[in-house]
Specification:
- The protein is an alpha/beta fold.
- The chain is built from 13 helices and 17 strands.
- The strands form 4 sheets. It has a 6-stranded mixed β-sheet with strand order 2-3-1-4-5-6, with helices on both faces.
- Strand 4 (85-91), helix 3 and strand 5 form a beta-alpha-beta unit.
- It is elongated, with a radius of gyration of 32 Å.
- The protein starts with a strand and ends in a 10-residue tail after the last helix.
Length: 475
């Protein structure tokens, strides 16, 4: 049986995102005392007594939307359409409002299964706070206080009537490749997401900072599962004023760690700026495979294009393994070419190498170019094995590895990358030195060895007592 899709709809600031976090047992949705915080549809998975469901958080609807608010409302209406169950959330403290009546009318037009969730009943007599909402005409009503985690069990029991429990071992698990889209505000990230999905899935508006939360969107392309993550644009720290934007940045950085492959979107008309390099550095520190998408490429003169290519080659010489694509998210030019590169990057990031292969490659590299000598002793590298994936980690064992110079470490990384055909992802090396097996152990001599040692020490002392005849000569 497929998982039911449950949508949360209601006015702004009635507690939908708090409910979302409670029902998915996560903190994926941003929560603050500010209306209109959620702007796109946000998906999450939940489970109640073996019954699994997909939960959709939406932006608030007031019925008087204009501009970006109208697009937010359209996202909520789309969620209503695709949901099998709608949780209509109202605020017990504010009471019944014209906006609630407008939403109830929209739900009746769409003929959806609706459960009226009277939220924020804490501190009030629940039945009295609920009475006026019977006017909306919904028979299934549940009282909750999401911030206090009250009524969650009753709510899910009501919502999941008729849904069978699924054995977790038989549950479908196809997360696919997680693609994180990052970049500065207004460089076209959401436009690229919509182009890759083939639908107006996230809000696109000519205003920096439209996306405030990280939106996880599972989908399929040519039968392959993917999850694309649209993130909030990250500005320079000195330009960040709103506390909500600070939370958005935290969510973006978390999304980078969740992703398998990062697509850094750069504005071709502005060129590569320092903030792009800061974001790139964070993705590198997280060890993620990286693809660079230079957006808004259409409409540029040939001279401008050559200038941008030259600047990219010069400023990205430290990350030569990342491939750059020149695209137009608005018109779709070059977007389809991102997928083959993403596939290769993912394959390189998740690859598994056998120990004999890595050890043979290490031996060949050492034979071709031996490690330097330290304090009169040659550094020895004996064998290698894989220590992890995403990014791939190669563990090299030897002696005096702490003294291995950075230049030789880069030589090994470049050699392994070339021979193993690793694309788009960093390779991390860990060097471990074997301990001296005789350290801390006393050398116990037998009687014969002790006698020999005494004779040797006696002979050395007698040599030290004899005068140096050569020093007494007169020349």
């Amino acid at each position: 049986m497929s998982k039911p899709v449950i949508a949360l709809v209601g006015r702004p600031n009635v507690g939908k995102s708090t409910l979302f976090n409670r029902l998915t047992r996560t903190r994926d949705a941003l929560v603050a005392d500010l209306s209109g915080l959620t702007r796109d549809r946000k998906y999450g998975e939940g489970e109640h007594e073996g019954r699994h469901y997909i939960l959709v958080d939406t932006g608030g609807i007031s019925g008087l939307e204009a501009g970006i608010d109208a697009q937010m409302a359209q996202q909520a209406y789309t969620a209503m359409k695709e949901a099998s169950i709608v949780l209509f959330v109202v605020d017990a403290q504010d009471g019944l409002t014209p906006a609630d009546e407008h939403i109830a009318k929209e739900l009746r037009i769409r003929d959806k299964t609706v459960i009226l969730v009277v939220n924020k009943v804490d501190g009030r007599e629940p039945d009295g706070a609920t009475a006026e909402f019977y006017k909306l005409g919904f028979s299934r009503i549940v009282q909750t206080a999401a911030s206090q985690n009250r009524g969650m069990r009753s709510l899910m029991e009501e919502a999941l009537i008729g849904v069978e429990a699924v054995d977790p071992e038989r549950a479908e698990d196809q997360p696919g490749i997680r693609i994180g889209i990052i970049g500065r505000p207004n460089v076209g990230k959401s436009t690229l997401v919509n182009r890759m999905l083939g639908e107006e899935r996230v809000i696109v508006y000519d205003q920096p900072g439209t996306t405030r939360d990280s939106i996880y969107i599972p989908y399929e392309r040519h039968g392959k599962p993917y999850t694309i993550i649209d993130t909030a644009g990250v500005r320079r720290r000195k330009n960040i004023d709103e506390s909500v934007e600070k939370f958005s940045i935290v969510k973006t950085l978390q999304a980078v760690k969740d992703a398998h492959v990062i697509v850094l979107v750069v504005d071709a008309q502005e060129g590569l700026v320092d903030q792009d390099l800061h974001l790139l550095g964070f993705a590198m520190d997280a060890g993620r495979a990286i693809v660079i998408a230079v957006n808004k490429w259409d409409g540029l003169s040939q001279e401008k294009k050559e200038s941008i290519r030259s600047a990219l080659d010069r400023r990205l010489d430290f990350i030569t393994y990342a491939k750059s694509h020149f695209i137009s998210a608005l018109h779709g030019t070059g977007v389809g070419e991102l997928y083959p590169t993403i596939e290769r990057c993912y394959k390189s990031a998740m690859v598994k190498w056998p120990t004999p292969m890595l050890t043979k490659l290490l031996e060949d590299a050492v034979l071709s170019h031996a490690p330097p000598m330290v304090s009169g002793r040659r550094i020895k590298l004996r064998y290698a094995h894989q220590g992890g994936s995403n990014p791939p980690v190669v563990v090299v064992h030897g002696n005096q590895t702490d003294s291995l110079p950075k230049s030789y470490r880069r030589y090994l990384e470049n050699t392994f990358r070339t021979v193993l055909k690793v694309e788009g992802t960093p390779i991390r090396f860990e060097f471990k030195s074997g301990e001296n097996p005789f350290a801390g152990r006393a050398n116990n001599l037998n009687i014969k060895q002790q006698q020999k040692k005494k004779r040797l020490m006696k002979h050395v002392k007698s040599l030290n007592k004899k005068p140096n005849r050569r020093s007494n000569r007169i020349f």
